[in-house]
Write a structure and sequence with these properties.
The complex is a heterodimer of chains A (246) and B (363).
Chain A (H helix, E strand, L loop, with lengths): L5 E10 L2 E11 L4 E6 L5 H8 L7 E6 L2 E2 L4 H7 E4 L11 H11 L4 H14 L15 H12 L6 E5 L7 H16 L3 E6 L2 H4 L4 E6 L2 E6 L1 H7 L5 H9 L7
Parallel strand pairs in A: 3-8, 3-9, 6-7, 7-8
Antiparallel strand pairs in A: 1-2, 1-4, 4-5, 9-10
Helix pairs in contact in A: 3-4, 3-5, 5-6
Chain B lengths: L1 H16 L1 H21 L7 E7 L4 H12 L3 E6 L5 H7 L4 E5 L5 E5 L4 H28 L23 H32 L1 H7 L4 H30 L8 H25 L3 H11 L1 H7 L11 H7 L3 H13 L5 H30 L1
Parallel strand pairs in B: 1-2, 1-3
Antiparallel strand pairs in B: 3-4
Chain lengths: 246, 363
């Protein structure tokens, strides 16, 4: 297998005259937590959609888990997990039923599914609630479950699109704990966020402004480079240059 | 196949846990059938009738007896000529037959509801003429007739001798209700996944769109079969709608039609982004052309040239035409193959377009 696990060169996406993603290039290493930061409309989601095989690039190339994003999106889909910014489990199915459904989608056998469900629920200390309807759970729990469901088929990479929107700080802490656990198991995490304190938890972060990557380094190095005390200040310095409106 | 089955299971769970919606889709047809069958009716069921008789004769007696014995007429008595207006006005009767001294018969009607009074009038005329014709024939046969008797024209109503409106409405209402409910069910269920965000996750997974979409149709197909059964039972036992044709033909036609409607809902759901829009399209945008251009309310023959061609694209039109042939005229498959073929073609078209559209969404 190739290392890095994600490799992107001059990736571009145009919608008519509008260049949403403008010649971005970067590598993501296996097992790292890679933060993708930027203001709303900077092109984060578009870039991520191309990596997940949801959208074809206009120009440039990219490889995810060793597969070409332009031609092998079906292969890529088998090797990644995805959690969108909108909550995406079925509210009228129980916790277990949701996990079984997604396990089935990824072609796991009944035995494998049972093992994974037990393992993941134990990790969450949530085994008692496996027959609860997802709709009856608090939002924080739903988000944690959604992450676990995204990991059910042991993907090599998990893409998280603003996973912690709308949850309380406490739950966000717990959520990031899960992310760290998954990364420790060797899963690569690709996460977009606009909470700058979360950027501190990442091994490396990129800052996207106007469809381009303006900075890419570890949070500590970025703070040093921009003479800032926090990632928040780094973000302000970079985002100020943005020409696109919100 | 395993994936397919796990989606089918998921769809059944969705429906079974949403009891309220399930009850609505199961009871809506019942309510609509009863509404259309009973409330919206132009048929004459119970005519309150009075008569004014100037002079009794055997002819008059014969005709009075015929009126009194008619099951659709409640004969409320002989009144004086000066009371006619009062009785009609008070609603004691809706029609008065006046037997004049010179043998002329006049019918006075309460025409506040013109369509009912028109049918009451023609119905009464028919009865009186029938009796007269009978008498005239008897007279000629026995040679007692002194003068030349003019035989009146007699009209026979074939297929629907009592002019029951159920014969007209039931096929139409079936055509409307089935397509409405089936298309609403599928279109909402696909769009709901888009709204909930679950569709996005499914698209990122390796599952093929057809595995997501086709299982949605299966539980709704089962519900639609139940609906067909209730609709047919209601129309037969409550609305006295006969089924002269054979049942397998009828069922084949209905099943084809619900598959078409489910596919139509699928097509709509691939085109819109919210349940609200899907509902508006299904319930309102489709409903009006469906009622006007399907022959349900107005005969298609009356349509102006341009609209007549438009009606070719209304699926309900072909269904209603075919089901009238089967239920009312008692014709078999050989008489409705053209309609079946057109409906099949439409179904295939809806499927192909919606699956293609769905693949596009992956991009």
């Amino acid at each position: 297998m190739i290392d890095p696990i994600i490799s992107v060169r001059n990736l571009t996406k145009q919608f008519g005259d509008f260049t949403a993603v403008d010649h971005i290039s970067f590598d993501v290493h296996r097992g790292e937590i890679f933060g993708f930061l930027g203001a709303n409309g900077a092109g984060k989601t578009t870039a991520m959609r191309m990596l997940c095989g949801l959208s074809f690039p206009t120009d440039g190339s990219g490889f995810v888990a060793g597969y070409d994003i332009s031609t092998e999106s079906e292969q890529i889909k088998r090797h990644i997990g995805y959690m969108s910014q909108r909550f995406s489990l079925y509210q009228d199915l129980t916790v277990k039923e949701n996990m079984e459904l997604y396990g089935g989608i990824y072609g796991l056998s009944g035995k494998e599914i049972a093992e994974r469900v037990e393992h993941l629920l134990n990790r969450l200390n949530f085994a008692d609630h496996k027959d609860d309807l997802v709709g009856s759970l608090p939002l924080g729990w739903k988000q944690k479950l959604a992450f676990m469901v995204a990991a059910i088929h042991r993907p090599e990479i998990i893409f998280l699109d603003e996973p912690t929107g709308g949850v309380d700080p406490m739950t966000r802490q717990q959520f990031w704990e899960l992310i760290r656990l998954a990364a420790a198991d060797g899963t690569t995490i690709f996460v977009t966020t606009h909470y700058m304190d979360e950027a501190e938890f990442c091994d490396r972060v990129t800052m996207m402004v106007d469809g381009q990557i303006r900075a890419l380094d570890s949070p500590a190095n970025l703070r040093k480079q921009y003479g800032a005390e926090s990632m928040e200040q780094v973000f302000y310095k970079l985002a100020r240059e943005a020409k696109r409106g919100e | 196949m395993k994936i397919f089955l796990s989606f089918v299971r998921k769809e059944f769970i969705h429906i079974l846990r949403d009891v309220r919606t399930m009850l609505i889709v199961l009871f809506m047809p019942v309510v609509l059938m009863l509404l259309f069958g009973f409330a919206i009716t132009t048929e004459i069921k119970n005519i309150d009738l009075m008569a004014v008789v100037d002079q009794y004769s055997p002819d008059v007696r014969g005709e009075l007896t015929a009126l009194e014995n008619n099951p659709y007429i409640t004969f409320k008595g002989i009144i004086h000529e000066r009371d006619v207006d009062v009785k009609l006005r008070s609603g004691d009767c809706v029609a008065v037959v006046m037997f004049a001294r010179d043998g002329k018969r006049n019918i006075v009607l309460d025409a506040s509801n013109p369509s009912i009074s028109a049918s009451v009038g023609s119905y009464l005329t028919q009865i009186l003429q029938g009796v007269e014709a009978q008498e005239a024939m008897n007279n000629t046969r026995f040679g007692t007739s002194q003068q030349n008797v003019k035989l009146p024209v007699t009209t026979y109503m074939r297929h629907n001798p009592q002019l029951k409106s159920a014969y007209n409405f039931v096929p139409g209402v079936m055509g409307l209700i089935l397509i409405l409910i089936c298309s609403i069910m599928t279109c909402v269920s696909v769009v709901r996944e888009k709204e909930m965000g679950t569709m996005e996750v499914l698209l990122v997974s390796p599952v093929k769109p057809i595995y997501v979409v086709l299982p949605k149709m299966i539980p709704y197909f089962v519900i639609s079969l139940i609906n067909i059964a209730t609709i047919l039972l209601i129309s037969h036992f409550v609305l006295d709608m006969p089924v002269y044709g054979n049942l397998p033909t009828l069922l084949a036609l209905c099943v084809l039609y619900i598959v078409l409607s489910l596919a139509l809902g699928l097509l709509i759901s691939t085109l819109v982004e919210s349940q609200m829009v899907a509902l508006i399209i299904c319930a309102m945008v489709m409903m009006v052309p469906m009622m006007m251009l399907s022959g349900m309310l107005y005969p298609l023959e009356n349509l102006p040239p341009g609209l007549k061609e438009v009606s070719f694209f209304v699926p309900a039109r072909w269904f209603i035409e075919a089901i009238r042939k089967v239920m009312v005229e008692g014709l078999g498959m050989s008489a409705i193959w053209k309609e079946m073929l057109i409906l099949t073609a439409m179904t295939v078209f809806f499927f192909v377009v919606s699956l293609r559209k769905f693949n596009d969404r992956l991009e």
